[in-house]
Amino acid sequence: MDYQNLVELHVHLEGAVRHETLYELLKEKCLPVPGNGTLEDLKKKMIINEPIDLAHFLAPFCHIVDVVKDIAVAERVAYEFCEEMSKNNVKYVEARYSPHNFTPDQKEVSNMTALEEAVKAVTRGFTKGELDFGVKARSILCGLNGTDGVIDVLQLSKTFKNDGVVGIDMATKQGSEITEEILLDPKAIYVYEEAKKCGIHRTLHAGETGGPDMIVRALDVFHTERIGHGYHVLDDNKIYNRCLKEKIHFECCPWSSLLTGSLCKTIIKHPIVRFAEDDVNFSINSDDPTVTGFWILDDYKLVQSWGISENSLKQANNNAAENCFLPEHEKAQLIKLIKK
Ligand SMILES: [Zn+2]
């Protein structure tokens, strides 16, 4: 496969900061640099190589969160992200982030002006990035686990619906699956119901570490259109068959799924291999390149090494385009480009 014209749907902007930029900003802001103070060592400390557990995977994020709470940084990170995407032959990407992480006080509930400034800064970075690198990038705003911040995210998605923001998600502060209790939280349910009413697209981290019942809840209660990860759908045949029948889209992140420990360490066959065999509607994504050390091209190559056919890989990219959150006319143009 020539891996051209790729589409990526699941990547966290906070998890896609260049190591060089992180190093420079930590020094500039007089914050502790992980490791012995060199860039090389920072890379070693930031990249997780071994699957241990989710806490181990999420630990390096504290360094990123320390530096991004600044409008200028938000714009820079968004711009550089487009350059990295272009190096990975990506034509269209939906990057998700918590606007709260990019505000100066990083409070769970920040003031709306600061949040709006953060979203505008990311969109400015994306707009410049599109001009300079030919990558179209749109935002998915991510509500933080069990906080009033989900209400902010709903409000921001309404404000910026036709201005760079294409959908909402919900995750923990570090970008992993929300807990079961949150999926019962009336506030979170309200946000998704209201988003549906307003025509705001919805995705949700589910079935990554949680069981298949979380996927059912995401679909039936949260009206989500795509599932972030979703590997544990395979734990229940009935639910798996339902998802197959309804062509539910799974945003799969191959390398990250191994590093987070969300799958049993001794799995013989990765769920993505089964998805490809059964013609599940799935895409291939990178999730958090700063921490995994893998950008999307690396993930494509990894799954190819697992024996997934070239046709399935092409189909995965088509699935990404067909399930993206762009307005219909832009989506049609994207699909045309991909299939060229
Ligand atoms: Zn994620």
Task: Show the helix and strand layout.
Layout (H helix, E strand, L loop, with lengths): L5 E7 L6 H10 L10 H8 L7 H5 L2 H7 L3 H17 L2 E8 L14 H22 L2 E9 L4 H11 L5 E7 L14 H12 L3 E6 L5 H9 L5 E4 L7 H9 L3 E4 L1 H6 L11 H7 L4 E3 L4 H4 L3 H10 L4 H13 L5 H12 L1
Parallel strand pairs: 1-2, 2-3, 3-4, 4-5, 5-6, 6-7, 7-8
Helix pairs in contact: 5-6, 7-8, 15-16
The site of zinc ion has 7 residues, from strand 1.
What this model shows, in words?
The protein is an alpha/beta fold. The chain has a single domain, classed as TIM Barrel, CATH 3.20.20.140. It contains 16 helices and eight strands. Strands 1-2-3-4-5-6-7-8 form an eight-stranded parallel β-sheet. Helix 9 (212-220) links the parallel strand 5 (201-206) and strand 6. The longest helix has 22 residues, at 112-133. The radius of gyration is 18 Å and the shape is globular. Bound molecules: zinc ion. Zinc ion binds at residues 10, 12, 171, 175, 205, 228, 287. Residues 10, 12, 171, 175, 205, 228, 287 line the site of zinc ion.
The CATH architecture can be named as Alpha-Beta Barrel
Percentage of β-strand residues: 5-15%
Shape: globular
Helix content class = 40-55%
Report the span from N to C terminus: 14 Å
Mean model confidence by pLDDT: 91
Assembly type: single chain
* Assigned CATH class: Alpha Beta
Instruction: Specify the CATH homologous superfamily.
Output: Metal-dependent hydrolases
State the domain count: 1
The major pleated sheet works out as:
8 strands, parallel
Low-confidence stretches: none
The CATH topology is given as: TIM Barrel
> Element order, helices and strands?
EHHHHHEHEHEHEHEHEHHEHHHH
**In total, how many beta strands?**
8
Strand order in the sheet with the most strands:
1-2-3-4-5-6-7-8
